[in-house]
Amino acid sequence: MEKRTFLAVLLSLLILIIYPYIIVRFFPQYVSSPQKEVLEEVKEEETALAPLTSETSLLSPFSRSALPFSVSEKEKVFENDNFRIVFSNYGGAIKEIELKKYRLNNQPLLLVKARERDQYVFADKDVIYKQAVSSDSTVTYTADLDGQFQISKEYFISPEGYFINLNLSIRNLTSYPQQFNPLLSISSPVSQDRFSRRFSEICLANDTIQRRNISRLKKEYIKKGDFSWVGINKKYFCLILKHLAEDKTEKDVGRIKAGFASEREDDNLLLSAEIEPFIIPAEQEISQEFILYAGPKATEELTKADKDFVRIINYGFFSGISRLILITLKFFYKIGHNYGLAIILLAILINLFLQPLTLKSFRSMKDMQRIQPHINRLREEHKENPHKLNEEIRNLFRKHNVNPLAGCLPILLQIPIFIALYQGLMRSLELRGAHFIFWIKDLSQPDALRLPFSLPLIGDKINVLPILMAIAMGWQQRLSSPRKEFPTEAEKHQQKMALIMPAIFALIFYSMPSGLVLYWLVNTLIAIFYQRRIR
Description:
The protein has helices at residues 3-26, 40-43, 194-197, 299-305, 319-336, 339-353, 355-381, 386-399, 409-427, 464-480, 489-509, 514-534; strands at 75-79, 83-88, 93-104, 107-113, 130-134, 138-145, 149-157, 163-172, 178-180, 183-189, 201-205, 209-213, 220-223, 229-233, 237-244, 250-251, 256-260, 268-274, 278-280, 285-296, 449-455, 459-462. The chain is α+β, with helices and mostly antiparallel strands.
Protein backbone atom coordinates (compact mmCIF):
# COMPACT_ATOMS: atom_id res chain seq x y z
CA MET A 1 0.00 0.00 0.00
CA GLU A 2 1.31 3.43 -0.94
CA LYS A 3 2.71 5.22 2.09
CA ARG A 4 0.68 8.44 1.87
CA THR A 5 -2.55 6.50 1.61
CA PHE A 6 -1.55 4.47 4.63
CA LEU A 7 -0.91 7.67 6.59
CA ALA A 8 -4.32 9.04 5.59
CA VAL A 9 -6.08 5.87 6.73
CA LEU A 10 -4.06 5.89 9.94
CA LEU A 11 -5.04 9.52 10.56
CA SER A 12 -8.74 8.72 10.14
CA LEU A 13 -8.32 5.73 12.46
CA LEU A 14 -6.71 7.91 15.12
CA ILE A 15 -9.60 10.38 14.90
CA LEU A 16 -12.12 7.55 15.26
CA ILE A 17 -10.25 6.27 18.30
CA ILE A 18 -9.84 9.69 19.91
CA TYR A 19 -13.45 10.74 19.28
CA PRO A 20 -15.00 8.49 22.01
CA TYR A 21 -12.55 9.97 24.53
CA ILE A 22 -13.71 13.45 23.51
CA ILE A 23 -17.29 12.32 24.10
CA VAL A 24 -16.36 10.92 27.50
CA ARG A 25 -14.52 14.14 28.36
CA PHE A 26 -17.33 16.50 27.49
CA PHE A 27 -20.27 14.12 28.00
CA PRO A 28 -18.92 11.88 30.76
CA GLN A 29 -20.73 8.79 31.90
CA TYR A 30 -22.49 8.62 35.17
CA VAL A 31 -20.39 8.12 38.28
CA SER A 32 -22.33 7.57 41.47
CA SER A 33 -21.31 9.69 44.41
CA PRO A 34 -23.08 10.65 47.61
CA GLN A 35 -21.44 14.05 47.82
CA LYS A 36 -23.36 17.29 47.22
CA GLU A 37 -22.37 19.72 44.53
CA VAL A 38 -23.60 23.25 45.21
CA LEU A 39 -22.32 26.26 43.32
CA GLU A 40 -20.44 28.79 45.42
CA GLU A 41 -22.48 31.62 43.99
CA VAL A 42 -25.63 30.21 45.60
CA LYS A 43 -24.27 29.69 49.09
CA GLU A 44 -24.48 33.40 49.86
CA GLU A 45 -28.17 33.43 48.95
CA GLU A 46 -29.45 30.82 51.37
CA THR A 47 -30.29 33.44 54.02
CA ALA A 48 -32.13 35.65 51.53
CA LEU A 49 -34.32 32.74 50.46
CA ALA A 50 -35.31 31.76 54.01
CA PRO A 51 -38.94 32.50 55.06
CA LEU A 52 -39.69 35.83 56.78
CA THR A 53 -40.25 35.69 60.53
CA SER A 54 -41.19 39.22 61.60
CA GLU A 55 -44.67 40.25 62.71
CA THR A 56 -45.32 41.69 59.26
CA SER A 57 -44.30 38.47 57.51
CA LEU A 58 -46.46 37.38 54.61
CA LEU A 59 -47.27 33.68 54.70
CA SER A 60 -46.94 31.15 51.92
CA PRO A 61 -49.59 28.42 51.80
CA PHE A 62 -46.96 25.76 51.05
CA SER A 63 -44.72 26.75 53.96
CA ARG A 64 -47.18 25.44 56.53
CA SER A 65 -46.68 22.27 58.52
CA ALA A 66 -47.44 18.93 56.93
CA LEU A 67 -51.00 17.73 57.10
CA PRO A 68 -51.61 14.23 58.47
CA PHE A 69 -52.11 11.74 55.67
CA SER A 70 -55.03 9.89 57.20
CA VAL A 71 -56.77 10.04 53.85
CA SER A 72 -55.79 7.22 51.50
CA GLU A 73 -54.41 8.03 48.09
CA LYS A 74 -56.95 8.24 45.31
CA GLU A 75 -55.75 8.01 41.74
CA LYS A 76 -57.39 9.36 38.62
CA VAL A 77 -56.35 7.82 35.29
CA PHE A 78 -56.65 10.02 32.22
CA GLU A 79 -56.13 8.66 28.70
CA ASN A 80 -56.12 10.04 25.19
CA ASP A 81 -54.36 9.01 21.98
CA ASN A 82 -50.92 10.15 23.22
CA PHE A 83 -51.00 9.89 27.01
CA ARG A 84 -51.92 7.67 29.87
CA ILE A 85 -51.62 9.96 32.93
CA VAL A 86 -52.12 8.96 36.56
CA PHE A 87 -53.16 11.87 38.81
CA SER A 88 -53.15 11.72 42.61
CA ASN A 89 -55.12 13.54 45.30
CA TYR A 90 -51.81 13.76 47.18
CA GLY A 91 -50.73 17.23 46.15
CA GLY A 92 -53.21 17.28 43.25
CA ALA A 93 -50.23 16.14 41.18
CA ILE A 94 -49.14 13.86 38.35
CA LYS A 95 -47.81 10.48 39.43
CA GLU A 96 -47.18 8.80 36.08
CA ILE A 97 -47.02 9.79 32.42
CA GLU A 98 -47.00 7.01 29.84
CA LEU A 99 -46.42 7.72 26.15
CA LYS A 100 -48.82 5.30 24.51
CA LYS A 101 -47.32 5.44 21.02
CA TYR A 102 -43.83 4.43 22.15
CA ARG A 103 -42.34 1.33 23.76
CA LEU A 104 -39.12 0.62 25.61
CA ASN A 105 -37.88 -2.98 25.53
CA ASN A 106 -41.43 -4.09 24.66
CA GLN A 107 -42.72 -2.37 27.82
CA PRO A 108 -44.82 0.80 28.20
CA LEU A 109 -42.62 3.90 28.03
CA LEU A 110 -43.05 5.79 31.31
CA LEU A 111 -41.56 9.26 31.03
CA VAL A 112 -42.71 10.01 34.59
CA LYS A 113 -42.83 7.27 37.23
CA ALA A 114 -42.76 8.74 40.73
CA ARG A 115 -42.00 6.47 43.67
CA GLU A 116 -42.57 8.96 46.48
CA ARG A 117 -44.93 11.93 46.94
CA ASP A 118 -42.11 14.46 46.65
CA GLN A 119 -41.34 13.08 43.17
CA TYR A 120 -44.81 13.82 41.80
CA VAL A 121 -44.98 16.45 39.06
CA PHE A 122 -46.52 19.75 40.27
CA ALA A 123 -46.76 18.27 43.77
CA ASP A 124 -47.69 20.02 47.00
CA LYS A 125 -46.66 17.05 49.09
CA ASP A 126 -48.24 18.38 52.31
CA VAL A 127 -51.68 19.11 50.85
CA ILE A 128 -54.50 16.68 50.14
CA TYR A 129 -56.70 17.73 47.24
CA LYS A 130 -60.08 16.59 46.11
CA GLN A 131 -61.01 16.06 42.51
CA ALA A 132 -63.56 18.65 41.50
CA VAL A 133 -64.32 17.84 37.89
CA SER A 134 -62.91 16.16 34.80
CA SER A 135 -63.75 16.10 31.10
CA ASP A 136 -62.33 14.80 27.85
CA SER A 137 -59.34 17.12 28.13
CA THR A 138 -59.26 18.56 31.66
CA VAL A 139 -58.72 17.34 35.21
CA THR A 140 -59.30 19.74 38.12
CA TYR A 141 -58.29 19.48 41.78
CA THR A 142 -59.13 21.85 44.64
CA ALA A 143 -57.98 22.26 48.24
CA ASP A 144 -58.84 24.49 51.21
CA LEU A 145 -56.11 25.39 53.70
CA ASP A 146 -57.44 26.25 57.16
CA GLY A 147 -59.76 28.93 55.83
CA GLN A 148 -56.71 30.86 54.65
CA PHE A 149 -56.44 29.85 51.00
CA GLN A 150 -58.46 28.13 48.35
CA ILE A 151 -56.29 26.49 45.68
CA SER A 152 -57.41 25.18 42.33
CA LYS A 153 -55.33 23.18 39.86
CA GLU A 154 -56.85 22.80 36.42
CA TYR A 155 -54.92 20.56 34.05
CA PHE A 156 -55.62 20.84 30.32
CA ILE A 157 -54.20 17.87 28.42
CA SER A 158 -53.70 18.62 24.74
CA PRO A 159 -55.64 16.16 22.56
CA GLU A 160 -53.24 16.66 19.64
CA GLY A 161 -49.83 17.25 21.20
CA TYR A 162 -47.60 16.13 24.05
CA PHE A 163 -48.10 19.04 26.41
CA ILE A 164 -50.12 19.79 29.52
CA ASN A 165 -51.24 23.26 30.63
CA LEU A 166 -51.64 23.80 34.37
CA ASN A 167 -53.76 26.77 35.50
CA LEU A 168 -52.95 27.36 39.17
CA SER A 169 -55.39 29.66 40.99
CA ILE A 170 -54.88 30.79 44.60
CA ARG A 171 -57.58 32.76 46.41
CA ASN A 172 -56.69 34.58 49.62
CA LEU A 173 -59.64 34.07 51.98
CA THR A 174 -58.30 36.39 54.67
CA SER A 175 -58.63 40.13 55.21
CA TYR A 176 -54.90 40.74 54.89
CA PRO A 177 -52.39 40.16 52.07
CA GLN A 178 -50.38 36.95 51.98
CA GLN A 179 -47.30 35.80 50.08
CA PHE A 180 -47.28 32.93 47.65
CA ASN A 181 -43.92 31.30 46.92
CA PRO A 182 -44.35 28.64 44.21
CA LEU A 183 -41.93 25.72 43.99
CA LEU A 184 -42.66 23.34 41.12
CA SER A 185 -40.99 20.00 40.47
CA ILE A 186 -40.67 17.58 37.59
CA SER A 187 -39.06 14.15 37.68
CA SER A 188 -38.18 11.33 35.32
CA PRO A 189 -36.59 7.89 35.69
CA VAL A 190 -33.11 7.54 34.20
CA SER A 191 -31.95 4.45 32.34
CA GLN A 192 -29.36 2.23 34.03
CA ASP A 193 -27.65 1.75 30.68
CA ARG A 194 -24.41 3.75 30.81
CA PHE A 195 -24.52 4.52 27.10
CA SER A 196 -28.03 5.98 27.36
CA ARG A 197 -27.11 7.96 30.50
CA ARG A 198 -24.47 9.75 28.46
CA PHE A 199 -27.30 11.55 26.64
CA SER A 200 -29.26 12.51 29.78
CA GLU A 201 -28.93 16.06 31.07
CA ILE A 202 -30.76 19.01 32.57
CA CYS A 203 -31.25 22.09 30.40
CA LEU A 204 -31.64 25.69 31.57
CA ALA A 205 -32.69 28.04 28.78
CA ASN A 206 -32.34 31.78 28.37
CA ASP A 207 -30.44 33.40 25.48
CA THR A 208 -28.33 30.27 25.43
CA ILE A 209 -28.94 26.82 26.86
CA GLN A 210 -26.90 25.63 29.81
CA ARG A 211 -26.59 21.86 29.69
CA ARG A 212 -25.43 19.74 32.59
CA ASN A 213 -24.95 16.01 32.16
CA ILE A 214 -26.42 13.85 34.91
CA SER A 215 -22.97 12.49 35.76
CA ARG A 216 -22.20 15.98 37.10
CA LEU A 217 -25.24 15.93 39.38
CA LYS A 218 -23.41 13.98 42.03
CA LYS A 219 -26.15 14.62 44.54
CA GLU A 220 -27.57 18.10 44.30
CA TYR A 221 -27.04 21.01 41.93
CA ILE A 222 -28.33 24.51 42.62
CA LYS A 223 -28.31 27.34 40.11
CA LYS A 224 -29.80 30.82 40.35
CA GLY A 225 -30.77 32.72 37.24
CA ASP A 226 -33.58 33.90 35.01
CA PHE A 227 -34.52 31.00 32.77
CA SER A 228 -37.29 31.06 30.18
CA TRP A 229 -37.74 27.31 30.65
CA VAL A 230 -36.04 24.34 32.31
CA GLY A 231 -36.09 20.70 31.37
CA ILE A 232 -34.85 17.14 31.67
CA ASN A 233 -33.35 16.07 28.36
CA LYS A 234 -32.99 12.38 27.54
CA LYS A 235 -31.83 10.51 24.46
CA TYR A 236 -35.13 10.55 22.56
CA PHE A 237 -37.60 12.17 24.98
CA CYS A 238 -37.74 15.18 27.28
CA LEU A 239 -39.66 17.02 29.99
CA ILE A 240 -39.82 20.83 29.74
CA LEU A 241 -41.39 23.26 32.23
CA LYS A 242 -42.30 26.84 31.36
CA HIS A 243 -44.03 29.56 33.42
CA LEU A 244 -46.61 31.96 31.99
CA ALA A 245 -48.15 34.95 33.75
CA GLU A 246 -51.88 35.55 34.04
CA ASP A 247 -51.87 37.54 30.79
CA LYS A 248 -50.07 34.65 28.97
CA THR A 249 -46.79 36.55 28.77
CA GLU A 250 -43.60 34.66 29.54
CA LYS A 251 -42.21 34.76 33.07
CA ASP A 252 -38.74 33.59 33.97
CA VAL A 253 -38.07 30.67 36.27
CA GLY A 254 -35.76 31.60 39.15
CA ARG A 255 -33.51 29.36 41.19
CA ILE A 256 -33.49 25.69 40.23
CA LYS A 257 -32.35 22.63 42.11
CA ALA A 258 -31.56 19.30 40.45
CA GLY A 259 -30.35 15.92 41.65
CA PHE A 260 -31.31 12.31 42.19
CA ALA A 261 -33.98 11.33 44.68
CA SER A 262 -31.48 9.06 46.43
CA GLU A 263 -28.02 7.58 45.97
CA ARG A 264 -29.44 4.73 43.88
CA GLU A 265 -28.39 4.94 40.25
CA ASP A 266 -31.81 3.81 39.02
CA ASP A 267 -33.74 6.44 40.99
CA ASN A 268 -35.63 9.40 39.58
CA LEU A 269 -33.91 12.57 38.44
CA LEU A 270 -35.60 15.54 40.11
CA LEU A 271 -35.68 19.14 38.90
CA SER A 272 -37.32 21.83 41.06
CA ALA A 273 -37.93 25.37 39.85
CA GLU A 274 -38.54 28.27 42.20
CA ILE A 275 -40.84 31.01 40.91
CA GLU A 276 -40.52 34.62 42.03
CA PRO A 277 -42.77 35.13 45.10
CA PHE A 278 -45.83 37.32 44.67
CA ILE A 279 -48.39 38.90 46.97
CA ILE A 280 -52.06 37.91 46.98
CA PRO A 281 -54.19 40.88 48.15
CA ALA A 282 -56.88 40.31 50.76
CA GLU A 283 -59.88 38.39 49.44
CA GLN A 284 -58.40 38.37 45.95
CA GLU A 285 -57.38 35.61 43.55
CA ILE A 286 -54.25 35.27 41.43
CA SER A 287 -53.77 32.78 38.61
CA GLN A 288 -50.56 31.47 37.10
CA GLU A 289 -50.16 29.17 34.11
CA PHE A 290 -47.49 26.57 33.43
CA ILE A 291 -46.73 24.45 30.39
CA LEU A 292 -45.31 20.96 30.76
CA TYR A 293 -44.04 19.27 27.62
CA ALA A 294 -43.68 15.52 28.11
CA GLY A 295 -42.94 13.74 24.88
CA PRO A 296 -40.59 12.90 22.03
CA LYS A 297 -37.79 15.17 20.83
CA ALA A 298 -39.50 15.70 17.49
CA THR A 299 -39.44 19.21 16.02
CA GLU A 300 -43.08 19.22 14.96
CA GLU A 301 -44.28 18.04 18.39
CA LEU A 302 -42.09 20.46 20.34
CA THR A 303 -43.29 23.34 18.16
CA LYS A 304 -46.93 22.58 19.00
CA ALA A 305 -46.19 23.37 22.64
CA ASP A 306 -43.71 26.23 22.15
CA LYS A 307 -41.45 27.12 19.23
CA ASP A 308 -38.56 27.77 21.61
CA PHE A 309 -38.65 24.20 22.94
CA VAL A 310 -36.96 23.01 19.74
CA ARG A 311 -33.68 24.30 21.17
CA ILE A 312 -33.51 21.32 23.52
CA ILE A 313 -32.49 19.14 20.55
CA ASN A 314 -28.71 19.01 20.36
CA TYR A 315 -26.52 17.08 17.92
CA GLY A 316 -23.14 18.11 19.30
CA PHE A 317 -20.30 20.08 17.69
CA PHE A 318 -21.37 19.32 14.11
CA SER A 319 -25.03 20.06 14.86
CA GLY A 320 -25.56 21.99 11.61
CA ILE A 321 -24.27 19.13 9.48
CA SER A 322 -26.34 16.63 11.50
CA ARG A 323 -29.53 18.59 10.89
CA LEU A 324 -28.79 18.85 7.17
CA ILE A 325 -28.12 15.10 7.00
CA LEU A 326 -31.37 14.30 8.82
CA ILE A 327 -33.36 16.60 6.52
CA THR A 328 -31.83 14.78 3.55
CA LEU A 329 -32.57 11.39 5.11
CA LYS A 330 -36.21 12.35 5.66
CA PHE A 331 -36.45 13.46 2.03
CA PHE A 332 -35.09 10.11 0.81
CA TYR A 333 -37.35 8.30 3.28
CA LYS A 334 -40.38 9.84 1.58
CA ILE A 335 -39.19 8.22 -1.66
CA GLY A 336 -38.47 4.69 -0.45
CA HIS A 337 -40.17 4.61 2.99
CA ASN A 338 -37.08 2.89 4.39
CA TYR A 339 -34.34 4.64 6.35
CA GLY A 340 -31.78 2.00 5.35
CA LEU A 341 -32.39 2.83 1.71
CA ALA A 342 -32.27 6.53 2.64
CA ILE A 343 -28.78 6.07 4.16
CA ILE A 344 -27.60 4.31 1.00
CA LEU A 345 -28.92 7.16 -1.16
CA LEU A 346 -27.28 9.67 1.21
CA ALA A 347 -23.90 7.94 0.81
CA ILE A 348 -24.28 8.01 -2.98
CA LEU A 349 -25.26 11.70 -2.92
CA ILE A 350 -22.28 12.70 -0.76
CA ASN A 351 -19.90 10.76 -2.99
CA LEU A 352 -21.33 12.47 -6.07
CA PHE A 353 -20.53 15.84 -4.50
CA LEU A 354 -17.04 14.65 -3.59
CA GLN A 355 -16.46 12.80 -6.87
CA PRO A 356 -13.99 15.29 -8.40
CA LEU A 357 -11.85 15.26 -5.26
CA THR A 358 -12.17 11.48 -4.90
CA LEU A 359 -11.05 10.79 -8.47
CA LYS A 360 -8.22 13.26 -8.06
CA SER A 361 -7.08 11.51 -4.87
CA PHE A 362 -7.11 8.09 -6.52
CA ARG A 363 -5.14 9.42 -9.49
CA SER A 364 -2.71 10.96 -7.02
CA MET A 365 -2.29 7.56 -5.38
CA LYS A 366 -1.63 5.95 -8.76
CA ASP A 367 0.96 8.66 -9.51
CA MET A 368 2.60 8.01 -6.16
CA GLN A 369 2.76 4.30 -6.94
CA ARG A 370 4.30 5.11 -10.34
CA ILE A 371 7.11 7.20 -8.88
CA GLN A 372 7.62 4.95 -5.84
CA PRO A 373 10.65 3.18 -7.46
CA HIS A 374 12.32 6.59 -7.91
CA ILE A 375 11.63 7.45 -4.26
CA ASN A 376 13.13 4.13 -3.16
CA ARG A 377 16.21 4.81 -5.29
CA LEU A 378 16.63 8.28 -3.77
CA ARG A 379 16.31 6.84 -0.28
CA GLU A 380 19.06 4.39 -1.04
CA GLU A 381 21.31 7.05 -2.53
CA HIS A 382 20.84 9.64 0.23
CA LYS A 383 20.21 7.47 3.27
CA GLU A 384 23.07 9.21 5.07
CA ASN A 385 21.81 12.71 4.24
CA PRO A 386 18.12 13.23 5.24
CA HIS A 387 18.14 16.91 4.27
CA LYS A 388 19.31 16.11 0.75
CA LEU A 389 16.81 13.24 0.54
CA ASN A 390 13.85 15.50 1.38
CA GLU A 391 15.00 18.08 -1.15
CA GLU A 392 15.33 15.48 -3.93
CA ILE A 393 11.91 14.01 -3.14
CA ARG A 394 10.31 17.46 -3.32
CA ASN A 395 11.98 18.01 -6.69
CA LEU A 396 10.68 14.64 -7.84
CA PHE A 397 7.11 15.60 -6.85
CA ARG A 398 7.39 18.89 -8.76
CA LYS A 399 8.84 17.17 -11.81
CA HIS A 400 5.99 14.65 -12.02
CA ASN A 401 3.33 17.13 -10.80
CA VAL A 402 2.35 14.92 -7.85
CA ASN A 403 0.72 16.19 -4.66
CA PRO A 404 1.28 13.61 -1.89
CA LEU A 405 -1.51 15.11 0.26
CA ALA A 406 -4.20 14.99 -2.42
CA GLY A 407 -5.16 11.46 -1.42
CA CYS A 408 -5.98 12.56 2.13
CA LEU A 409 -8.47 15.34 1.36
CA PRO A 410 -11.61 13.24 0.63
CA ILE A 411 -11.01 11.19 3.77
CA LEU A 412 -10.64 14.34 5.88
CA LEU A 413 -13.83 15.79 4.38
CA GLN A 414 -15.70 12.59 5.25
CA ILE A 415 -14.75 12.76 8.94
CA PRO A 416 -17.15 15.64 9.92
CA ILE A 417 -19.90 13.94 7.92
CA PHE A 418 -19.17 10.66 9.68
CA ILE A 419 -19.29 12.24 13.16
CA ALA A 420 -22.42 14.28 12.31
CA LEU A 421 -24.16 11.14 11.02
CA TYR A 422 -23.17 9.31 14.22
CA GLN A 423 -24.70 12.05 16.38
CA GLY A 424 -27.82 12.15 14.22
CA LEU A 425 -28.33 8.39 14.36
CA MET A 426 -27.79 8.30 18.12
CA ARG A 427 -30.20 11.17 18.94
CA SER A 428 -32.76 11.26 16.14
CA LEU A 429 -36.19 9.94 17.13
CA GLU A 430 -37.03 9.09 13.51
CA LEU A 431 -34.28 6.48 13.38
CA ARG A 432 -35.24 4.90 16.70
CA GLY A 433 -36.46 1.43 15.79
CA ALA A 434 -36.10 2.11 12.04
CA HIS A 435 -36.14 -1.22 10.17
CA PHE A 436 -33.97 -1.94 7.13
CA ILE A 437 -33.91 -5.54 5.90
CA PHE A 438 -34.03 -9.02 7.43
CA TRP A 439 -32.07 -8.95 10.71
CA ILE A 440 -31.43 -5.16 10.76
CA LYS A 441 -34.42 -4.04 12.81
CA ASP A 442 -33.07 -0.85 14.38
CA LEU A 443 -30.63 1.40 12.52
CA SER A 444 -29.81 3.29 15.72
CA GLN A 445 -28.46 0.07 17.31
CA PRO A 446 -25.85 -2.51 16.22
CA ASP A 447 -27.27 -5.10 13.84
CA ALA A 448 -27.48 -8.38 15.72
CA LEU A 449 -28.12 -11.64 13.85
CA ARG A 450 -29.13 -14.40 16.24
CA LEU A 451 -27.17 -17.63 15.83
CA PRO A 452 -28.47 -21.15 16.52
CA PHE A 453 -25.37 -21.69 18.65
CA SER A 454 -23.09 -19.71 20.95
CA LEU A 455 -19.56 -18.54 20.12
CA PRO A 456 -16.78 -17.64 22.58
CA LEU A 457 -16.64 -13.91 23.41
CA ILE A 458 -19.49 -13.16 20.96
CA GLY A 459 -22.34 -15.24 22.34
CA ASP A 460 -25.41 -16.22 20.32
CA LYS A 461 -25.57 -12.94 18.36
CA ILE A 462 -23.20 -11.59 15.73
CA ASN A 463 -23.06 -8.16 14.11
CA VAL A 464 -22.80 -8.87 10.40
CA LEU A 465 -22.40 -5.39 8.88
CA PRO A 466 -18.99 -4.65 10.52
CA ILE A 467 -17.69 -7.95 9.13
CA LEU A 468 -18.95 -7.11 5.63
CA MET A 469 -17.39 -3.67 5.98
CA ALA A 470 -14.01 -5.21 6.94
CA ILE A 471 -14.15 -7.51 3.91
CA ALA A 472 -14.91 -4.55 1.63
CA MET A 473 -12.06 -2.54 3.16
CA GLY A 474 -9.68 -5.46 2.64
CA TRP A 475 -10.72 -5.60 -1.00
CA GLN A 476 -10.15 -1.85 -1.30
CA GLN A 477 -6.68 -2.14 0.26
CA ARG A 478 -5.80 -4.92 -2.17
CA LEU A 479 -6.81 -2.75 -5.13
CA SER A 480 -4.78 0.21 -3.90
CA SER A 481 -1.64 -1.82 -3.15
CA PRO A 482 0.78 -2.36 -6.04
CA ARG A 483 1.56 -5.99 -6.84
CA LYS A 484 5.24 -6.77 -7.06
CA GLU A 485 7.03 -10.05 -7.56
CA PHE A 486 9.87 -9.03 -5.25
CA PRO A 487 8.57 -6.43 -2.76
CA THR A 488 10.93 -4.60 -0.42
CA GLU A 489 10.82 -5.06 3.34
CA ALA A 490 8.93 -1.77 3.75
CA GLU A 491 6.38 -2.87 1.15
CA LYS A 492 5.95 -6.22 2.91
CA HIS A 493 5.26 -4.35 6.14
CA GLN A 494 2.71 -2.13 4.41
CA GLN A 495 0.98 -5.20 2.95
CA LYS A 496 0.69 -6.71 6.42
CA MET A 497 -0.78 -3.46 7.73
CA ALA A 498 -3.25 -3.50 4.84
CA LEU A 499 -4.58 -6.77 6.23
CA ILE A 500 -4.61 -5.62 9.84
CA MET A 501 -6.36 -2.27 9.26
CA PRO A 502 -9.75 -3.74 8.15
CA ALA A 503 -9.76 -5.97 11.23
CA ILE A 504 -9.09 -2.94 13.48
CA PHE A 505 -11.87 -0.97 11.82
CA ALA A 506 -14.23 -3.95 12.28
CA LEU A 507 -13.51 -3.90 16.02
CA ILE A 508 -14.07 -0.13 16.21
CA PHE A 509 -17.36 -0.30 14.30
CA TYR A 510 -18.62 -3.54 15.88
CA SER A 511 -20.77 -1.86 18.55
CA MET A 512 -21.69 1.23 16.54
CA PRO A 513 -25.20 1.88 15.15
CA SER A 514 -25.92 -0.30 12.14
CA GLY A 515 -26.99 2.78 10.15
CA LEU A 516 -23.51 4.24 10.58
CA VAL A 517 -21.81 0.99 9.55
CA LEU A 518 -24.13 0.73 6.56
CA TYR A 519 -23.10 4.23 5.48
CA TRP A 520 -19.39 3.37 5.75
CA LEU A 521 -19.90 0.05 3.92
CA VAL A 522 -21.64 1.79 1.02
CA ASN A 523 -18.96 4.49 1.02
CA THR A 524 -16.24 1.81 0.79
CA LEU A 525 -18.01 0.03 -2.07
CA ILE A 526 -18.28 3.31 -3.98
CA ALA A 527 -14.55 3.89 -3.42
CA ILE A 528 -13.85 0.41 -4.83
CA PHE A 529 -15.90 1.32 -7.90
CA TYR A 530 -13.84 4.49 -8.42
CA GLN A 531 -10.57 2.61 -7.99
CA ARG A 532 -11.50 -0.04 -10.53
CA ARG A 533 -12.64 2.69 -12.90
CA ILE A 534 -9.26 4.46 -12.97
CA ARG A 535 -7.06 1.34 -13.03
